[in-house]
Automatic annotation (TrEMBL):
<dbReference type="Pfam" id="PF06573">
    <property type="entry name" value="Churchill"/>
</dbReference>
<keyword id="KW-0479">Metal-binding</keyword>
<keyword id="KW-0805">Transcription regulation</keyword>
<dbReference type="InterPro" id="IPR009508">
    <property type="entry name" value="Transcrpt_activator_Churchill"/>
</dbReference>
<dbReference type="GO" id="GO:0045893">
    <property type="term" value="P:positive regulation of DNA-templated transcription"/>
</dbReference>
<dbReference type="InterPro" id="IPR038543">
    <property type="entry name" value="Churchill_sf"/>
</dbReference>
<dbReference type="GO" id="GO:0008270">
    <property type="term" value="F:zinc ion binding"/>
</dbReference>
<protein>
    <recommendedName>
        <fullName>Protein Churchill</fullName>
    </recommendedName>
</protein>
<keyword id="KW-0010">Activator</keyword>
<keyword id="KW-0217">Developmental protein</keyword>
<dbReference type="GO" id="GO:0008543">
    <property type="term" value="P:fibroblast growth factor receptor signaling pathway"/>
</dbReference>
<keyword id="KW-0804">Transcription</keyword>
<keyword id="KW-0862">Zinc</keyword>
<comment type="similarity">
    <text>Belongs to the Churchill family.</text>
</comment>
Length: 139
């Protein structure tokens, strides 16, 4: 009699419910990522995917490149907002929704990123030749 053997990952994944995190009516999958919304400091991605955080598709169990779909760019009150979906290349399972924003506030460019896969990040850069935050006061 031949006995089937399952790896511990297959056994544990078959027992647990798949975690779905709804954002703007798009279900995102927490089981496809190593860490949900990792802190990326000031690394804000306008496009692309943070593949180091991708452990594999929870639906088809493959770890491959991702498709970027439903990409949109809109402008609201001087703020540029880029959104897109990360999809599994093999089964088109929605892994995450990515949102990137860019705006100019006073003398600074401000960037933000929020994505289950790519993480959360913020950055502010001066548009002046010399960043006033880096200047020292002279008395």
């Amino acid at each position: 009699m031949r006995r089937l053997s399952l790896s511990s990952r297959e056994v544990s994944s078959s027992r647990k419910q798949r975690r779905r995190l709804p954002v703007d009516c798009v279900a995102m999958c927490g089981d496809c990522v190593e860490k949900e919304y990792p802190n990326r400091g000031n690394i804000c991605l306008e496009n692309g995917s943070f593949l180091l955080n991708f452990i594999g598709c929870a639906v088809c169990s493959k770890r491959d490149f991702m498709l970027i779909t439903n990409k949109s760019l809109k402008e609201e009150d001087g703020e540029e907002i880029v959104t897109y979906d990360h999809l599994c290349k093999n089964c088109h399972h929605v892994i995450a929704r990515h949102e990137y924003t860019f705006s100019i506030m006073d003398e600074f460019q401000e960037y933000t990123m929020l994505c289950l896969l790519c993480g959360k990040a913020e950055d502010t850069i001066s548009i002046l030749p010399d960043d006033p935050r880096q200047m020292t006061l002279l008395f």
